Amino acid sequence: MGREMVIFREMKDRVEGIERLALELQELGRGMPVVEKNTRCILSFIHALKFGISDVAELEEEEV
Amino acid sequence: MERKYWNPVLETLPQERLWEIELKNFRKLLSYAKDHSALYREKLKGVDPKEIRTREDLRQLPLTDKEDLRRAQEGAGRGLYGDLLGVPWEDVTTFRQTSGTTGRPVYVPETYESWQWRVEAWCHILWMAGFREADRVFMPFGYNVYVAFWEGHYAAEKIGCEVVPGGALDTKGRINKMREVSATAMMSTPTYGLHMAEEAQKMGIDPKEIGIRRILCAGEPMPGATRRLLEEAWGAEVYDHIGGTEPCGWAGMCQQRDGLHVIEPFFLVEVLDRETMSREAGEGEEGVAVVTPLGRRSFPLIRFNTKDVVVRGKDGCACGRTSMMIKKVLGRADDLVKVRGVLFNPASVEEVLREEFPEVREYEVLLERKGAMDEITLRVEPEQEMGKEYHLALRGRLMERLKMKTNLRFEIEVLPPGTLPRYTLKAKRFKDLRRS
Q: What is the domain-level CATH number for residue B190?
């Protein structure tokens, strides 16, 4: 696996970490628009990152 | 890592790896659409996403066309979008609609997530075209319910460019504002880009001196000759892309400026033989682009028949990107018409005019039925007032060149400068009056 792929796997882990944290924050802030709406934005960017980063890393993982 | 790419690994993956990602996301989208979209619950009845393994399998699935969307919009689902919606209606944050030139407009719902996904795809398009943080991007168009340039605006912001909206200004106002803020880039339709250059010259301003280094065009097919004309007028690099309200912007031009890269794996694109719509066109062959945007849940769209007629290119490029290539956009399947038994593409007129008749500033093509015969007329407007002899000579040259290019005999009308309409968004230069 090339160095770039190693980095991609690490980035995928971070993307999942941010998603998990954002979901936890959303849950904690339920009923508070400031939290609900800002976490929704974070999760939308996570969706875009999954397409560019996580999908590629998963492909390599499946191969290994 | 190489800053030439928006995503250096993704954009240089071998084709087979891109396909694997697309297939995985295609299956995911099928499952999602079957569960969340009334349109596809019905359309994909009996389809098991796990059974889709090859591109041949893909072609067994039904296509979606604009009429399907119009019908679904009238469906029982709540709100404006009927059975098109793939999310709870209260999650929708952005309304867009198609222009409605071929029938009732289709309303397109976007959530914050789906909009950001569209914008991300557009970041690929802009980055490929060389847009960078240092650019001050001028947007010379009236912001509206149509999707035109909205994605470009948001994507330019996301890249880090400075975006200057030039909405509520006329053309002169826009040219002055571009000079005032020292804009370095802009986005426009090819028609409007040429019109702006013409207006600047009338104002005594050489467009080259404004300092625009790159222009991203949209909205109309842009023959190479038109692109070169724009480049000469502005002293800028001019880039093309292809997309639409329903499928999003799905391919863009890199700095080689030789064809369009499909934004893979965001979109799964098939180029299908126009007659049968069941065979994929090979390299150099023309076909209709069928597009599936793979990350949009608000408005699931599977195998959308864009009706864009394109020529498939050779995959891969000197820029290092490995994605599927579109060599050329020929025009809209709707615009290809039979005239006296000959298949006619209005874009071929633009190709001839821009390549060989620089003195022609504006034009339109009229197709009428006179008695039992179809008659095709080209109205041209020269750059400046010319004498009768010149008109005759121009008419003769045009008739000859168009006959050679299209195998059709054209009537030619030479009009005084400033007669024909100018367009700020999509130009309507071809009028098939047989339909009216």
A: 3.40.50.12780
Based on the fold, state whether residues B187 and B211 are members of the same structural domain: yes
| Cβ–Cβ contact A52 with B under 8 A | yes
Cβ <8 Å between A4 and B1: yes
| CA–CA dist B428, B333 (Å, integer) | 15
Question: pLDDT tens digits, residue range B129-160?
Answer: 999 999 999 999 888 888 888 999 999 999 99
Same domain, yes or no, for B53 and B189?
yes
- Which CATH number does the domain housing residue B402 bear? 3.30.300.30
Q: Name the domain boundary from B301, B332, B363.
A: B332
Strand partners for B108: B96
The rounded distance, in Å, linking the Cα atoms of B287 and B313 is: 11
CA distances from A64 to A55, A60, A61, B17, B137 (A): 15, 6, 5, 14, 44
Q: Which of B91, B93, B113 would you mutate first to test chain A, the one with the most A CBs within 10 A?
A: B113
Domain shared by B294 and B205, yes or no: yes
Domain ranges, ordered by start, for chain A: 3-63
Write the DSSP string, B51-66.
Answer: G--SHHHHHTSPPB-H
Contact B24 A40 (CB under 8 A): no
Q: What's the confidence (pLDDT) of residue B417?
A: 87
User: Chain B window 19-38: which residues touch A at a Cβ cutoff of 8 Å?
Assistant: 20-21, 24-25
Output the pLDDT for position B113. 97
